[in-house]
Write a structure and sequence with these properties.
22% helix, eight-stranded antiparallel sheet, 3 helices, Multidrug-efflux Transporter 1 Regulator Bmrr, Chain A, alpha+beta, globular
Length: 140
Amino acid sequence: MTARSAEVFGGLVAPRVVPGGETSISDLFRFLRERVRDRYDDALDVSTLFVPDAHGDYNAVIGMPHLSPADVPVGDVFVHVPSGVYAVFEPDGALQDPTEDVWAQVDEATANGELFRAYKEDIEVVTKSGRVELYISIVI
């Protein structure tokens, strides 16, 4: 468990997605991460924010953290993520794909009652080398 300060993220949108390993490793998400890396001088870490809407659906913003909304490039969407408490997941090697691995851990912890999700913004960070960290908003 960790606390994260409020942040502003800007980037490209994938509307009405289902958060999880299948979505994160899809061709669309790989394409969007590469576009973000290209636009930000080959950025090392690209974040995907899974943002719930008023109807319980999720939209994803694939992008980078910024100091303020004014720093987000024209044409990009930005999201302000408030400070919060998150469960942190890193691959444990149970599955070959690190992204599928962390999401499988979330599903298992949720099903076992070990994790009480807040169903707010969840943040997936993928480095250029493929390292994955997943921050799931939790109820404490």
